[in-house]
């Protein structure tokens, strides 16, 4: 790829499990000339083409002029327990994501990738999945030539913080994974690094809205 065709990548949520892998892969990807991580506080990164911009989640307007590039990868996500309430969770997983997306759309970012969740639906009776579904619907109304929504199932990988129930769930998921076939295949656990790789691949997938379930996330690499 010629110098003129090299891309600039923007990453939100680089301190998370998937976001960390996205940042690492982008740094190594020769198709990108620059990788910009938007973080709430400075984080340690290897020297290279990656740089950081710190921001206040409550004031996205202050960094709108920095949200310029070719491909944006949004890996922001928390849990209701960690957030402390449904209201705070919604503020992060819905409102913050949409504000970032609006800033990106206003600067003509070509590709927007989002980590959502298996089962996401605006009609879900589960608050977490309903919030994810509402975010997806809002993003579809924005003007991104290429919109990629990834819906991973249980994530495999080592988190910085320990989540006891999640670790127990991973163990169970690994045991029953061979039994999940056909329409149930999308519920198999998937490694966070695989999701990160699929996000980057899908950024080059062409115009349109692309929704990838866990099994499709695995297959996109093949």
Automatic annotation (TrEMBL):
- Identify this protein by name: Uncharacterized conserved protein YbjT
In terms of Pfam families, this protein maps to: NAD_binding_10
By its UniProt entry, which InterPro entries does this protein fall under? NAD(P)-bd_dom, NAD(P)-bd_dom_sf
- What domain of life does the UniProt record list for this protein's source? Bacteria
Q: Where is the NAD(P)-binding domain?
A: 13-155
């Amino acid at each position: 790829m010629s110098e003129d065709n090299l891309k600039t990548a923007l990453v939100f949520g680089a301190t998370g499990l998937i976001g960390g892998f996205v940042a690492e892969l982008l740094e190594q990807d020769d198709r990108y000339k620059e990788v910009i991580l938007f973080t709430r506080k400075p984080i340690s990164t290897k020297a290279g083409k990656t740089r950081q911009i710190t921001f206040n989640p409550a004031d996205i307007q202050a960094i709108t002029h920095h949200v310029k590039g070719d491909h944006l990868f949004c890996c922001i996500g928390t849990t209701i327990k960690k957030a402390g309430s449904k209201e705070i969770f919604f503020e992060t997983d819905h409102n913050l994501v949409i504000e970032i997306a609006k800033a990106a759309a206003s600067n003509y970012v070509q590709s927007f990738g989002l980590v959502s969740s298996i089962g996401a639906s605006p009609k879900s009776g589960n608050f977490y999945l309903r919030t994810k579904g509402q975010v997806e619907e809002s993003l579809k109304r924005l003007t991104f030539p290429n919109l990629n929504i990834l819906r991973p199932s249980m994530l495999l990988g080592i988190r910085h913080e320990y989540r006891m129930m999640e670790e127990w769930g991973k163990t169970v998921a690994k045991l029953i994974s061979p039994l999940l076939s056909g329409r149930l295949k999308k519920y198999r656990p998937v490694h966070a690094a695989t999701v990160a790789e699929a996000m980057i691949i899908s950024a080059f997938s062409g115009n349109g809205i692309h929704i990838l379930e866990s099994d499709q996330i695995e297959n996109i690499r093949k």
